[in-house]
Fold:
Amino acid sequence: MKKVLSIIMLSGALFAVNASANFTGPSVTGQTSTVQQAMSARVGSYITLTGYIVAHQRENYFTFRDDSGTLRVEIESSVWRGRDVSPQTRVRLMGEVDTGAAGRYLWVKSLDVVN
Structure:
């Protein structure tokens, strides 16, 4: 009986993964914003920024730049997914506006290279 339940649960999990992979409708990516807008956005808001990661500060913190200014961003190693990004690589970051001891930053949930 336990084997049957395990197989049913595994089948359901696989179906759920498959269903989301085939979804073609809109996704919640956060409002497209600029660094200047991010500086006044409500903490906890999800936003999308497009620009360049121009410097590594420390640990998982980097400096992001767009035409309106610079913002500290936190990008965990899992978000990089092994991609190489230079200061000349245009990227789209989606994340949550947060604040810490060093001020406002974007906690990045996804990173896409923009051609």
